[in-house]
Amino acid sequence: MKFSLKSLIWGTLLVAVGVVVTFVMFPKPTEVESAKVILGPLRVTVQEDGKTRIREKYVVSAPVAGRVSRIELKPGDRCYEGTLLAVILPSDPAILDARARAEAEARVQAAEAAKLRAASSEEQAKIDHELNLSKLVRAESLAELARAIDVDPAGLAASVARFNGFARSGRDQDFGRGETISDRYYSDPQVTPNPCLAPIEKPPFYAVKVYPGDLGTKGGVVTDPQGRALDTAGRPIPGLYAAGNCSASMMGETYPGAGGTIGPAMVFGFLAAEHACDGARRPGAT
Questions:
Q1: Beta strands in the chain (DSSP E)
Q2: What is the CATH number of domain 138-208?
Q3: pLDDT digits (tens, 9 = 90+) for 74-109
Q4: What pTM was estimated for this model as a whole?
């Protein structure tokens, strides 16, 4: 097929006109500002009169990956509750191979497990809160507190007054609180003159039921320094050892403080095991 010079010229002109029209009609790019998206609180600054005169700047984002459609709002437009700021179209999902699918399913399972743990923790917190509320009694006065816990108001007021006198003088004439090193170890050094006693004066007042209980052991099998159990005559019983709360306390009827049973249990448990191993290696030893 042959083209004349005239046809070639007209064809070139048409192509040139098409290019010019396309360039003119094509949407021009819009300059935008970019910034790093961070999660932060929404703050409004006010002055003494409660009014704000500072222009706050906020960054609005969504925790998804995608493409943002053209925003119709103009700078300075007012936004109200329910105002559509932008439309984000999700990105095309990546092709999932076997490994990527397994990783995605594992993340979903981990998220579901975390959700169940959070729900369990929330439920336990509610139970603990309700339990504490049921155990703790609060009142704005000692008389009101006495009526709430069903005790004599006059007797409670007298007990508190007597206790407050001890707190001011620094000497507990009833129980001697604060007179030992162990008492003062768990005290508040900012409270004077006795760090274990502070007056009960400012409402609200609280009360909680206290029940007697047991602590460790006050008796058990008598042992020797190797942890061997002794008979009524004080002789070691072959092959029988005792340590911890099943044995008699090495401190008798006294209790020096926290850990008073843990330490001896560890020491005599070790000694008993060591002696038993030596006996196994030496036939005939007790």
A1: 66-68, 88-90, 136-139, 205-208, 228-230, 236-241
A2: 3.90.700.10
A3: 887 888 878 888 787 777 766 767 887 888 888 889
A4: 0.38
